[in-house]
């Protein structure tokens, strides 16, 4: 476990898992799709530039905004980029949210079962069993090019900085 400068509502939190950095090889991870099938990061994003949008829960205003923003921005990149939002919400809640908000341009997957992504990428909030907020950009060869652990979990990530990094890879 690591004590980071990450805060939730102004209070320090502990992030569990290995901190990932630019230059690292993105580890494969599994999650759960909305239809309860297995999501495999390497297989389901093969050959694409990847944006992993990490959020605590889509049922909160900032997480909802983060997910809808990436859904809207996804059209800028056509088939070159795969955007994956990951939360620990149950797949049923994710499916309901995506249907209500018209989320069709990105994948929204759940890390609720094993926290496989959260542990491998260092995003698990130990005190809450939620994921911290952030963005990870990964190139076609699975090398991490950009990472943001948002310092205050209740704030939005830096969309423009992440998408700037994506444009460099296209």
Automatic annotation (TrEMBL):
A GO term for molecular function: thioredoxin peroxidase activity
InterPro entries reported for this sequence: Redoxin, Thioredoxin-like_sf, Thioredoxin_domain, TPX, Tpx_Peroxidase_subfamily
SUPFAM superfamilies: Thioredoxin-like
Annotated ranges, domain Thioredoxin: 20-170
Pfam families on file: Redoxin
Keywords for this protein: Antioxidant, Disulfide bond, Oxidoreductase, Peroxidase, Redox-active center
Highest taxon in the source lineage: Bacteria
Protein name per its UniProtKB record: Thiol peroxidase (Atypical 2-Cys peroxiredoxin)
């Amino acid at each position: 476990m690591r004590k980071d400068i990450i805060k939730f509502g102004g209070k320090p939190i502990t992030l569990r898992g290995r901190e990932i950095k630019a230059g690292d090889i993105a580890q494969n991870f599994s999650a759960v799709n909305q239809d309860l099938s297995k999501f495999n990061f390497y297989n389901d994003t093969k050959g694409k530039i990847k944006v992993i949008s990490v959020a605590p829960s889509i049922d909160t205003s900032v997480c909802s905004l983060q997910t809808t923003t990436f859904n809207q921005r996804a059209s800028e990149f056509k088939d070159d980029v795969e955007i994956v939002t990951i939360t620990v919400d149950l797949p049923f809640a994710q499916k309901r949210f995506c249907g209500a908000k018209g989320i069709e341009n990105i994948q929204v997957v759940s890390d609720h079962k094993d926290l496989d992504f959260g542990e491998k990428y260092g995003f698990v909030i130990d005190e809450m069993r939620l994921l911290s907020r952030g963005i990870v950009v990964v190139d076609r060869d699975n090398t991490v090019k950009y990472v943001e652990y948002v310092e205050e979990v209740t704030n939005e990530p830096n969309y423009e900085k992440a998408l700037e990094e994506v444009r460099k890879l296209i």
